[in-house]
UniProtKB/TrEMBL annotation:
A GO BP annotation: DNA-templated DNA replication
Gene3D superfamilies on file: P-loop containing nucleotide triphosphate hydrolases
Record-given protein name: DNA polymerase III subunit delta
Organism field: Cryobacterium zhongshanensis
Signal peptide boundaries: none
EC number: 2.7.7.7
Pfam families found in the cross-reference section: DNA_pol3_delta2
Ranges for region Disordered: 25-52
Keywords, alphabetical: Nucleotidyltransferase, Transferase
Enzyme class label: transferase
GO molecular function, one term: DNA-directed DNA polymerase activity
Top-rank taxon: Bacteria
Length: 413
């Protein structure tokens, strides 16, 4: 089984990384720096070429020390990054490769460093630690690989710490950054990485992946892939969690039922509650398991009080979990707004006579009623209001106020 088998819809990008990861028999095995000389010219060419049009042969002309994988949410950026990491860290024999793949999957490979955050931003201390570890030589593999998930979640001064590491890379270190787009990173960082852009996988590709990987019924897999708009992670959650599907359906029905301002206010409160329930479902079980694991590692028996000397470590864990809960709630609200975008996009499709392109087919009766109750320009105004609500919440406007203002535009009489 290949490390690339669990990826879907990104054949061109996989070909690029597969060719780049192939062991070389000469000094070319050393990653080429993307700063200065002919290597810089080669990177500049690759950076301006999308994965869909780049050939594997041109991309594999040289192995580079820094890569940037971009693509819309759910396109599989992190999955591809870790598959590439596994390929780089695989020694070459089947047994050793399988072991390396398992270690990468568990994020415990000695030559793998993962820089990620479950808070709102990546902390500077975390970046400094990753940069420090990037200076070490590989212990068992060909390379030391640092994967930076959500590289767009770094503030400018934190990004500058990463920039210095990319400017003077060790010979055997490979950086793999993931972000929605190149524009989310500093221009100075973009100039030092080779970019591979991913496309949105098709609904059929995502559904096939759910059937193969999760054993989901094909009909449910198709529905979840369609409703998630090919977002792989969200489709998987909808397919494996009936409660998540029910919460999503309740969200859309609440929006379709808005008939006045009071309806909008009540619907906003309900959407916030649904987002909160969704966030708790994601974090609650994990938080409990983390706390139990930490207490066990500290030698505290279940049910016993924590000694004063250890309370600082428990407090640090609780603070991390609170930050994760804040991000999870914000992500949950954003998912609701994305779902509402798909709903009013469906309304416009019906208004244009394109019912065959509706995403939320199970709610087609309500979508038709909403389409008949207003003009197309009103539906467009609602879509604009949703986009503005997302921007306001990202700027720390109170979610309840942002949702209420947005839902007022969704009134249909």
């Amino acid at each position: 089984m290949s490390v690339w088998d669990n990826l879907t819809g990104q054949a061109d990008a996989i070909a690029i990384f597969r060719a780049a990861a192939e062991p070389r028999q000469s000094a070319a095995d050393t990653p080429a720096s993307t700063t200065g000389g002919s290597a810089a010219a080669d990177t500049g060419t690759a950076r301006g070429t999308s994965a869909s049009s780049a050939s594997a042969s041109s991309a594999s002309a040289s192995m580079t020390h820094a890569w940037l994988i971009t693509g819309p949410p759910g396109s599989g950026r992190s999955n591809l990054a870790f598959a590439f990491a596994a390929a780089l860290l695989s020694p070459g024999t089947p047994a050793e490769d399988a072991t390396a793949e398992r270690l990468v999957e568990a994020r415990t490979h000695p030559d793998l460093v993962v820089l990620a955050t479950e808070g709102v931003i990546i902390k500077m201390e975390s970046v400094k630690e990753a940069v420090k570890r990037s200076q070490y030589s590989p212990s068992v593999g060909r390379y030391r690989v640092i994967v930076v998930e959500d590289a767009d979640r770094m503030v400018e001064r934190t990004s500058n710490v990463l920039l210095k590491a990319l400017e003077e890379p060790p010979e055997r270190t490979v950086w793999i950054l993931c972000a929605p787009s190149e524009a989310d990173l500093l221009p100075t960082i973009r100039s030092r990485v080779r970019t591979v852009r991913l496309r949105v996988p098709s609904v059929a590709d995502v559904a096939a992946l759910l059937v193969a990987r999760e054993g989901v019924d094909p009909a449910i897999a198709e529905r979840c892939a369609r409703e998630a708009q090919s977002h792989i992670g969200m489709a998987r959650r909808l397919a494996t969690n009936p409660e998540a599907r029910e919460r999503r359906e309740e969200t859309l029905k609440a929006a379709l039922g808005i008939r006045g301002v009071s309806y909008a206010v009540n619907a906003a409160a309900r959407l916030l509650a649904i987002a909160g329930d969704d966030a708790k479902a994601i974090t609650l079980e994990r938080d409990a398991a983390e706390r139990e694991s930490v207490l066990r590692s500290l030698g505290v028996e279940p049910g016993k009080s924590v000694p004063p000397a250890l309370r600082g470590q428990i407090k640090a864990l609780e603070d991390d979990q609170k930050r994760r809960a804040t991000r999870s709630l914000r992500d949950g609200i954003d998912r609701i707004l994305v779902d509402l975008t798909s709903l009013y996009r469906d309304v416009i499709m019906v208004q244009f006579g394109r019912e065959n392109e509706v995403i939320n087919r199970e709610l087609l009766v309500g979508v038709r009623a909403a389409a008949a109750a207003c003009a197309t320009v009103t539906t467009l105004a609602t879509l604009d209001a949703i986009a503005i609500a997302r921007q306001r919440i990202e700027s720390n406007v109170a979610p309840a106020l942002a949702l209420e203002a947005m839902l007022v535009s969704a009134i249909r009489r």
